[in-house]
Amino acid sequence: MIFLPLSILLCHELDDAIDQEVINHFQNFVPITSTPPSSIQDLSERWSNAYAPLANVSLAIFDSLMDSPTLDEWSSTISSMPNNKAPGPSMISYEMLKHLGPSASSLLLNLICACLSDANVLDLWRQATVFPILKPHEWKCQLKNTRPIILLEVIRKALVKLFYNCLAPLLASHHVLQGGNFAGLPGGSCCNPIITLESIIHDSVVTKQPLWILSQDISKAFDSVDLTMLRFALQCLRLPHAAIQFLFSLFMSRSNHIITAHGPTLPYRVRIGIDQGEVIFPLL
After folding, report:
1. What gap in Å lies between CA 267 and CA 269, rounded to an integer?
2. Residue 1 belongs to a domain
3. 25 inside domain
4. Would 283 be classed as within a structural domain?
5. What ranges make up the beta strands (E) of the chain?
6. What sign results for the dihedral spanned by CA atoms 84, 85, 86, 91?
7. Strand, coil or helix: what is 229?
8. pLDDT digits (tens, 9 = 90+) for 42-90
């Protein structure tokens, strides 16, 4: 029998207590305050009309969305991914994917095609690492003064980039998204509304006229996305069922673990929201 000093036992108990507090904080980062409706018919008339499928969008424009990619398309996607990025839990990096030989690249493409065909991703790709970084002010040992960075598996991110490269041009060329969607599509930018606002401010200064500006900063925007409402939005755009199922396979049954000063915590279930760090999520 091995006896450990009391100080070591207390240290382990303290580490466990810290881990649990860290998990509690990030698991309940955004409280679930209401039960989402089961269908758009349960919404008020105003919102049921807003989420109704768009009559001007043809289902035929998405016919090729879930087609299997060619090796050239997959290789081009891999080549476009950035270097020197932190990997996910498996520690596989983009650089590793870029240096795969022909046989390994072909096998990986088969896996990617299977994911699109089944409209699903691997369970391991729903696991992620949370790395809390400090906000630009005194953190005072308060977890609320940190910002979580989500480290996802890079193969999953490359697959989502491939899907985005197929979806975004369809949405743009057929004008599916309209109005205030400035930055989610290829060629889109927030520059125009910013320039417009700057011109209005400049005019107010020059003419010495009062100007009132209302700005809304949505705290924890990605973390507070309700999946039921997201499904309504995707159905509104008339995305095929397989495409919606594929996107939701990224969000369902997710688990994270958190990097702390004494190592990673145990995994915990993610209760709400979508992961930041995917190229497609600003579009969603």
Report:
1. 7
2. no
3. yes
4. no
5. 127-134, 146-151, 255-260, 263-264, 268-269
6. negative
7. helix
8. 889 999 999 999 999 999 999 999 999 999 999 999 999 999 999 999 9
As given in the structure block, the two tokens for residue 204 are 């107010």
Q: What's at 263, amino acid-wise? A: G
Which two three-digit tokens encode residue 177?
């998204």
Q: How many domains does the chain have?
A: 1
Per residue in 8-55, pLDDT (tens digit) is 444 556 778 888 889 998 888 777 777 888 888 888 999 999 999 999
Tell me the residue range of the domain where 23 lies: 6-187+222-269
Residue 86 tokens read as: 């932190």
Q: What one-character-per-residue DSSP string does 143-178 give?
A: GGGEEEEEE--HHHHHHHHHHHHHHHHHHHHTT-S-
> Looking at the domain assignment, is residue 138 inside a domain?
yes
pTM for the full model? 0.85
Q: Name residue, tokens 């809304």.
A: 216
Q: Output the average pLDDT for the chain.
A: 87
Compute the Cα dihedral for 25, 267, 229, 182 and give only its sign.
Answer: positive
